[in-house]
């Protein structure tokens, strides 16, 4: 299993940051290579919420489903995905210096089709860069 992580401080209230980040409808806006989230079962985000996703990893189009496994409003939310790639995502939130620190940890397996195109270390480096870029996109969106 591979892992990426990162964090960013966003100059916005924790409630606003949590609400935006925890909405599956917003994922494709700030997460690089996440092409779509569809068939979102319920709103707002809650344990058991499900949706379908489409993601591009290393030039391979992956599809699957996701389900929210944990929600602590304005503190943490987690999901597990399956299908074209198995992963576990956890976002954490804390108030710092009048803003919000967002942490992201992703554990994932690299699907076989992706390994045919690139080596695991290359994919892991790209995925780490994408996680950091996604957090920066989130910062730009929420501070605008």
Give keywords.
single chain, 144 residues, alpha+beta, Alpha-D-Glucose-1,6-Bisphosphate, Chain A, domain 4, seven-stranded antiparallel beta sheet, 28% helix, globular
Description:
By secondary structure, the protein is of the alpha+beta class. The chain has one domain (2-143): START domain (Alpha-D-Glucose-1,6-Bisphosphate, Chain A, domain 4). It is built from four helices and seven strands. It has helices spanning 14-21, 27-30, 112-115, 120-143, and strands spanning 2-10, 34-38, 50-57, 60-72, 76-83, 87-96, 99-108. It has a seven-stranded antiparallel sheet with strand order 1-7-6-5-4-3-2. A hairpin with a 2-residue loop joins strand 6 and strand 7 (99-108). It is globular and about 45 Å long. The N and C termini lie far apart (36 Å). The mean pLDDT is 93.
What is CATH's topology name?
A: Alpha-D-Glucose-1,6-Bisphosphate, Chain A, domain 4
Helical element count?
A: 4
- How many domain units? 1
Structural class: alpha+beta
CATH first level: Alpha Beta
Provide mean pLDDT, rounded: 93
CATH level-four homologous superfamily name: START domain
CATH architecture: 2-Layer Sandwich
- CA distance, first residue to last residue: 36 Å
Global Rg? 15 Å
Beta-strand fraction estimate: 35-45%
Give the biggest sheet: 7 strands, antiparallel
Short description:
By secondary structure, this protein is of the alpha+beta class.
Helix and strand arrangement:
Blueprint: E1 2-10, H1 14-21, H2 27-30, E2 34-38, E3 50-57, E4 60-72, E5 76-83, E6 87-96, E7 99-108, H3 112-115, H4 120-143
Antiparallel strand pairs: 1-7, 2-3, 3-4, 4-5, 5-6, 6-7
């Amino acid at each position: 299993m591979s892992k990426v992580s990162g964090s960013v401080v966003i100059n916005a209230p924790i409630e606003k940051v949590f609400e935006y980040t925890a909405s599956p409808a917003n994922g494709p806006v700030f997460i690089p290579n996440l092409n779509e989230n569809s068939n979102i079962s319920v709103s707002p985000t809650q344990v058991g919420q499900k949706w379908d996703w489409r993601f591009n990893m290393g030039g391979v189009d992956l599809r699957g489903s996701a389900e929210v496994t944990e929600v602590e409003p304005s503190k943490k939310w987690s999901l597990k995905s399956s299908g074209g790639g198995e992963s576990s995502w956890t976002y954490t939130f804390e108030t710092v210096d009048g803003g919000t620190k967002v942490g992201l940890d992703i554990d994932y397996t690299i699907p076989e089709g992706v390994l045919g195109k690139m080596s695991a270390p290359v994919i892991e480096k790209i995925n780490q860069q994408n996680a950091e870029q996604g957090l920066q996109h989130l910062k730009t969106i929420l501070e605008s």
